[in-house]
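User: tokens in, sequence out, please.
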């Protein structure tokens, strides 16, 4: 070989070597630019290439992987099992769920063959599926919670409380069940009832329920808001007037609400706003069962049951001289205090789902809550009680952009209350939350209590007991 020929061949080899280096550099840049993790092993299952995403996703460094046999990594517990070993054994593309240092990954191993059909390399693509499993778990929790409360509402309809539910009262808390029990008992008699509770707790609904479940249900039911009628008109509206009793009076006269409610029920809402002079006349009706119209000269016997309600503390008003003590005692024969929503947290989820379904039907929509929304609802104080919840849920349904209503759709005040609620939780409550989430995730992944218990490191019987205690149904 001549000198010129030798120089030419060296030039060609150098050029080929440079091209190969350049190609390898480009290939390396392509592999590192992948968002998903990529790992390459040779025919002996020894790691030779891994990209930056692998370390980012798993925390495993090149020093731990490159030049190491995959069986070593399995034995050391760095990876749960090796897709490379499976591909080399089965000589085909394989997909598994792999755990690498606690990170759950979906791994696909692809064999690379030479011209003789022999596997020379295995390329593994890895994707982090922990977020997917979390979302899957949360979706399952939402579905379970929704079904639970809808089933409870349906079950409640079938039981003795059906009519109470249909009258608008939805409850499962022990506090409200006690109130419902008392309301049902008192509906069977004619005793005067005083409903007390904050604005929006449902006093009017209870008054309706008591009337509808009473022996007077087929008779008139008259509602009067004492705060909504001007003081000068309230007397004539309640007691009626004779013709010519005052300027502008109807020529024929007019019966008042007491006469109109004959045989039935008169509901006096916001009774604490009634002027003192009218309280005297109301007291006479309760004592004598008779009224006298304005401008009249004779009394009219009435047979009316009185239910009154107030969001103000009448006993405090009595002490201040703003409400008559004798009238208070007459109205307070059967007091029923309706607790605010913040004192009956167990009622929040069923109420929320009830209003959600009601609004969906109203607007022909199919919105649903993310599980965290219910958690935020339970942490909130609800100063406007049930009325506030109903109005908020309607607003969320009609204004949210997607089918799922998330915490991002909630007003900012809910975030503040959620943070405060977390601080208020006991250690036991926090532990139960963590246990519940871990059990649901394990059951979703492993399907059986035996496999889920093994994953959690507890016995099967212990897992079953925990699921019963935490009311987890899979």
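Assistant: Sequence out:
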């Amino acid at each position: 070989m001549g000198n010129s020929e030798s120089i030419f061949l060296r030039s060609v080899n150098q050029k080929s070597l440079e091209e190969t280096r350049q190609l390898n550099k480009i290939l390396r840049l392509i592999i590192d630019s992948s968002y998903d993790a990529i790992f390459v092993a040779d025919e002996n299952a020894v790691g030779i290439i891994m990209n930056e995403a692998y370390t980012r996703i798993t925390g495993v460094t090149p020093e731990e992987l490159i030049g190491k046999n995959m069986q070593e990594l399995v034995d050391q517990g760095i990876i749960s099992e090796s897709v490379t070993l499976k591909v080399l054994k089965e000589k085909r593309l394989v997909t598994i769920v792999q755990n690498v240092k606690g990170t759950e990954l979906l791994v696909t191993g692809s064999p690379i063959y030479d011209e003789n059909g022999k596997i020379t390399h295995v390329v593994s693509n890895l994707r982090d599926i922990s977020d997917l499993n979390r979302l899957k778990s949360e979706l399952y929790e939402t579905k379970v919670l929704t079904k639970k409360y809808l089933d409870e509402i349906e079950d409640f309809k079938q039981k003795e409380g059906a009519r109470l539910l249909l009258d608008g009262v939805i409850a499962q808390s022990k506090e409200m069940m006690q109130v419902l029990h008392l309301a049902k008992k008192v509906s069977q008699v004619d005793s005067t009832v005083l409903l007390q509770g904050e604005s929006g707790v449902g006093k009017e609904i209870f008054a309706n329920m008591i009337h509808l479940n009473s022996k007077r249900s087929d008779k008139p039911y008259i509602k009067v808001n004492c705060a909504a009628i001007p003081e000068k008109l309230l007397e004539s509206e309640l007691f009626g007037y004779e013709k010519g009793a005052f300027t502008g009076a109807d020529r024929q006269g007019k019966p008042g609400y007491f006469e109109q409610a004959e045989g039935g029920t008169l509901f006096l809402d916001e009774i604490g706003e009634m002027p003192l002079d009218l309280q005297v006349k109301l007291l006479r009706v309760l004592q004598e069962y008779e009224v006298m119209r304005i401008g009249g000269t004779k009394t009219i016997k009435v047979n009316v049951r009185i239910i009154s309600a107030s969001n103000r503390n009448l006993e405090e008003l009595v002490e201040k001289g703003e409400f008559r003590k004798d009238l208070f005692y007459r109205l307070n024969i059967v007091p029923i205090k309706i607790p605010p929503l913040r004192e009956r947290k167990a009622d929040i989820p069923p109420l929320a789902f009830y209003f959600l379904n009601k609004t969906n039907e109203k607007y022909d929509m199919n919105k649903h809550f993310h599980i965290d929304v219910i958690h935020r609802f339970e942490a909130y104080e609800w100063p406007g009680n049930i009325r506030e919840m109903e109005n908020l849920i309607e607003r969320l349904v009609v204004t949210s952009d997607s089918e799922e209503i998330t915490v991002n759709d909630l007003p900012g005040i809910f975030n503040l209350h959620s943070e405060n609620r977390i601080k208020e939780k006991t250690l036991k409550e926090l532990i139960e939350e963590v246990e519940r989430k871990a059990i649901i995730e394990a059951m979703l992944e492993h399907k059986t209590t035996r496999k889920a218990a093994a994953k959690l490191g507890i016995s099967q019987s212990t897992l079953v007991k925990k699921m019963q205690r935490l009311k987890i149904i899979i």
